Amino acid sequence: MKRLRNNRGFTFIELLMVIIVLGILAQMAFTFALDLQTRSSDIMAISDGRNLITAVRDNFVSLENVVYAHNPGDGPEIGTVDTGANPRPPVFTLSPGVRAKITADSESPGTPQDGYFNARLYHIKGTDDSVNPSGKREFLFVADEEFNVYSLPTF
Q1: Which fold has domain 11-151?
Q2: Which band of pLDDT confidence, cut at 50, 70 and 90, is reported for residue 105?
Q3: What is the pTM of this model?
Q4: What pLDDT, on the 0 to 100 scale, is given for residue 7?
Q5: CA 57 → CA 67, 112, 115, 152, distances in Å?
């Protein structure tokens, strides 16, 4: 009986178990937070792609001559020249961290129902994917006026 009355604190093993459980919970929370950041980066790339397709469709309708060809290292501004290589205000500006690869045949030729656009967007902090040259998960966006095809990925 006397031994039970003198028990004033926790044993070393009990404290060690609490620290281990807290460490496991902290690791789970950290992994979850990183996953959320990666997913939000992917969603930012999808959002930029959808907004870019809207801008491209507007330019197709207004028959503006715009060259959309763009490489990931070209900066955030897209459509800064027309088909005559004259400078123009950018059609769209990408969000920070979002990169775009737009093929050279993507342009708005200035003739009705003849526009074509093909872009792959990704975020530098997005989901890793070793299959793609960027090393990140890429999202394909296509606008083809001739066949009335508009491809917008979802997450």
Answers
A1: minor pseudopilin epsh fold (3.55.40)
A2: low
A3: 0.79
A4: 64
A5: 14, 12, 9, 13
The rounded distance, in Å, linking the Cα atoms of 63 and 92 is: 16
With beta carbons less than 8 A apart as the criterion, state whether 96 and 125 touch: no
Q: What is the pLDDT of residues 37-69, one digit of tens each?
A: 999 999 999 999 999 999 988 888 888 888 888
74 in Cβ contact with 98 (< 8 Å): no
Query: What's the rounded Cα separation, in Å, for the pair 95 and 58?
Result: 20
Q: Are strands 92-93 and 98-102 parallel, antiparallel or unpaired?
A: unpaired
Report whether 60 contacts 147 (CB < 8 A). no
pLDDT for 97 beyond 90: yes
Q: Could you tell me which residues come within 8 angstroms of residue 146 by beta carbon, excluding any fewer than 6 positions away?
A: 113, 114, 116
64/26 Cα distance (integer angstroms):
54
Contact at 8 Å (CB) between 107 and 97? no
